[in-house]
Amino acid sequence: MAEKFDNLEEHLEKFIENIRQLGIIVSDFQPSSQTGLNQKLNFMITGLQDIEKCRQQLHDINVPLEAFEYIDQGRNPQLYTKECLERALAKNEQVKGKIDTMTKFKSLLISELGKVFPEEMTKYKAIHGDDPPS
Length: 134
Fold this sequence. Notes:
Elements: H1 2-27, H2 34-57, H3 65-72, H4 77-116, H5 118-128
């Protein structure tokens, strides 16, 4: 898989360099540079075809739109991944805290219900297999 990405990266770098050179030719266009311009335009077309071939090999890759927003803002798209992981970790800790709280609440509830309704709680524990609260 990495080989496919390296291939795409190589074609994109060549394409970008070709566009840069094309911009230089166009910005200082002289009739004598028409041949060079035509050659660069043909290289651009070939480059787009090469990129399209690479794209077809990577059709099953999904990139979140937020990553493109990071790029548009001039930010490193790896920051998007880092921030996603940080948000997932924070959410995981939050959910773990809720689970721990609910577990403690259940234990306390069973304990208190056992004091108020001892017969019913004995039946409940027999059905659910819960150990008596300590």
